[in-house]
Amino acid sequence: MQGTLFTTPDEIYALADVDGWNIFWIRPQTVEERIRTLAIIKDVDVKLDLPNRLVIRVVERQPVAAWQAGDQLFLVDAEGVLFEVRGDPSNAVLVRDVRNEPLRPGDRVDPEAIVTALELNQIMPERREFEWRPGAGLSFVTEEGWRVQIGDHQNLMLKVLIYRQFQVQVAPARNVTLLDLSVPERPYYRVASGEE
Question: Is 196 inside a domain boundary?
Answer without folding.
Answer: no
